[in-house]
Amino acid sequence: MPAFQRRQCSRQHEFVHQHRFIRTANNPNQTFMIKKTLINTGIDNLRVYASTSNYSEKEVEAFYMDLEKFYREDHTFFKVIIGHFNAKIGLRRTSEKRHIGNHGLKCNEEGERLPQLIMASKTIHVNSQFQKPHPKRWT
Hints:
It comes from Angiostrongylus costaricensis (Nematode worm). This is Endo/exonuclease/phosphatase domain-containing protein. The protein is about 20% helix and about 25% strand. By secondary structure, the chain is of the alpha+beta class. It has one domain. Strand 4 (about 45-50), helix 1 (about 55-75) and strand 5 (about 80-85) form a beta-alpha-beta unit. Helix 1 runs parallel beside helix 2. Mean pLDDT is about 65; it is low at about 1-30.
């Protein structure tokens, strides 16, 4: 059951914040996902912290399946997935992968699954679309 919190903002607009944890574990450092919805605005922010490489392939796959399912079930017009995926997806490899830009970092093992999610959900990996100095690039 999601927990609702009502807050009054300074401009007298009332927003309802809905938090929903999709995957939680006893260890707070393990995989979890939070949905934060501003109901009156039509924008959903999916805030994500992904599993690190020391988790099993089964756990990582379950995380991505949950995220993809959650993305498909949400019917908001604007959706933004924000978070740390512990993945470097590399550069665009084929012309079909227009959702991935030309300015990514070298690909790592976790970076093989993230492009599949990006293509399946028809989203854009914004961090690889724009050229940035090396210290300002994130995984």
